[in-house]
Amino acid sequence: MSKADRLKARLPRGFADRPATDLAATHRMLEKIREVYELYGFEALETPFVEYTEALGKFLPDQDRPNEGVFSFQDDDEQWLSLRYDLTAPLARHVAMRLDEQNITLPFRSYRAGWVFRNEKPGPGRFRQFMQFDADTVGSASVAADAEICMMAADALEAVGIKRGDYVIKVNNRKVLDGVLEAIGLGGEDKAGQRLTVLRALDKYDRLGEEGVSLLLGDGRKDESGDVTKGAGLNSDQIHRILYLFGARGDADALVNFQIHHGEEVPHEEGGRAIQLEAALFHRLGIATHGSEVGEAGLNELKIIAEYIRAAGYGPDRVIIDPSVVRGLEYYTGPVYEAELTFEVKNDEGQTVRFGSVAGGGRYDGLVGRFRPEPVPATGFSIGVSRLLSALQIVKSPIVTGEEQLGPVVVLVMDRDRIADYQRMVAELRNAKIRAELYLGGAGMKAQMKYADRRRAPCVVIQGSNEKAAGEVQIKDLIEGAERARADAAGASNAEYRAARLAQVSVPEQNLVEEVRKIVSRRNH
Hints:
This protein is of the alpha+beta class. It has 18 helices and 18 strands. 42% of the residues lie in helices and 19% in strands. It is an enzyme of class 6 (ligase). GO terms for molecular function: ATP binding; histidine-tRNA ligase activity.
């Protein structure tokens, strides 16, 4: 093939391959999270990658030609199909179908792990395909379900190795913000687009800060590349009212510090200062939502959630009320929450920042109802699998720092006319539940040994013509051989140790499985 005709091997932008080590670590992490979900009574569910576009929700930018934000195509019937944008909209469709069939028990508690796809501009840490691990309760309007999700999120993070003090679950209520937006003239269906722009601007608060968000709430913001993001078009008074709400926790914190400094007594129970801070925060939120029925209802729900969480033993070192949490999707209708990792890392510019969010979610009482004549309340949250895995690597969780899994035992090919004999040996090992493979390349013994070493094989099986004539096989312990080579290089001369731990042994062929099992067992403990 000429160079001109040769294809260039490349990945589409925003996509990535994943090696075996990442897959193994991801599997271990998902298993730990799954154990927590099942401890809470949630059961597994799987939905397809492709849904009818109309099922994905009104957050899509263009219903007539939805080629922005999601990957879409038309089928033979000219109906639009899309790769799923998240795991929540497919769940809503699934529940609605089963309600039609009268084949579901509510509340329906499920967890789902799977790939989702975003047709967005990729960048460092921003992929077009990524995995989420969700848990949702559908069919319960009680905020006890929201409180439970927050507690489960905290338990899941600790289960995978995030220590208490290195994370916080932040809780807000979309109704509180909706009440403020209503008060500044952004209520009603005709303002839905402007409200969504506001929500997406506020969702960038941690990254852009107050100044950047203020620009997005106003006329717009130009980033470092020169790209301009159109703003929500709010006036200065409207922007001030919204940012007052966002700064409520910091202002309450400053107030409590002032009160303590001037001799006000802190409650004596454990976490007394945090209790005082929460009371001050609720007072400020009461001011912000005064006169708004929606806002006051949202504040009351937050107080109940806080009561339930504290009663279950989850203190403010794990779960807090924070008005800065909004979540960017419009389908959230009530409590919203975010799991933030609080330890510091260096960003792409070398600045020290908090690691940030690894999970989030909230209540979406309208999503299932799009398919139904009656309302169906629901709440849940989603863990960003790749992002959480990156965090576990930073904190050196045992899930990702454990020893790399051993590779298979490799049976070397010393005589190409005896492939059938070597295949029989491999089959014997596999029948004994020992991972094994036959070398299938065309190289000589030296290259085969290098191959086995790179495969992290615990040992290799060798049978040339001499061993065959004697009815024996040689088994070379690759890890022991490497350790002895390092010991020799360091000047070690423990003859007794060397005699007891031979790196290569000859055994009768009928003892192949027994001897290999000894080596593999030693390496797995």
